[in-house]
Amino acid sequence: MSRGGVLITRLVGVACEAIGCRALANIVPKLNRENGRVVLTDLERVDVGHVTWEEVLRSERDFCRYQYAQHPNPLMRVLGWWQSRGSKVKAELKDKTVVAHERLLAGELALRSCQLEQGRVPARLGDLVTNYLSKVPEDPFTRQPLMYRPQGTNWLLYSVGPDGVDDGGRPAGRGWPVKGDILFDSSW
């Protein structure tokens, strides 16, 4: 959504992706097996082509260097850096949150497809690879696989969220700092 842009460009991309995730989350439970696979393939393609946070920061640094070269003022440079620190941290959390939502949607679709085709849920997410997923979805907050717990014919799939702590699937609340996990939620 926001490849090649600076921080504000990525934030607009995050907002657009969040709108798409909400809409998609509402229809996921209604998709049949064939449509679910099409959407799943598209979600994986989006994830592979996703702009990384490192790319965003590199573009932002390049833009700032250019601006400072045009108007050299050491005081403004330090002031700009100081004022932007907190904003960058919050923006990174927003970026990782939308990536987590997209990967949770892909995982949810794969699990639903597996359940529809095999009548059961897999024992672990790795069992979905090759038939449903090209790879196990990674939690952007830990760079480990998303958390998955089969529960009979249902399951719990979640990201540990911005606090990096596995809260056992307890949903994250609002406010700062964010505590709790990010779950697939079709009621967004």
Topology (SSEs and partners):
Blueprint: H1 7-27, H2 33-48, H3 53-70, H4 74-118, E1 147-151, E2 154-159, E3 182-183
Antiparallel strand pairs: 1-2, 2-3
Shape: elongated
Quaternary status of these chains? single chain
- As a whole number of angstroms, the C-alpha radius of gyration is 19 Å
Are there runs of 5+ residues with pLDDT below 50, and where?
A: none
How confident is the prediction overall: mean pLDDT? 87
Q: Count of DSSP E strands?
A: 3
Short description:
The chain is mostly helical and 188 residues long.
Task: Walk me through the structure.
This protein is mainly alpha-helical and 188 residues long. It has one domain. The chain is built from four helices and three strands, in the order ααααβββ. Strands 1-2-3 form a three-stranded antiparallel sheet, with helices on one face. Helix 1 packs parallel to helix 4 and helix 2 packs antiparallel against helix 4. The longest helix has 45 residues. The protein is elongated, with a radius of gyration of 19 Å. The protein starts with 6 loop residues before the first helix and ends in a 5-residue tail after the last strand.
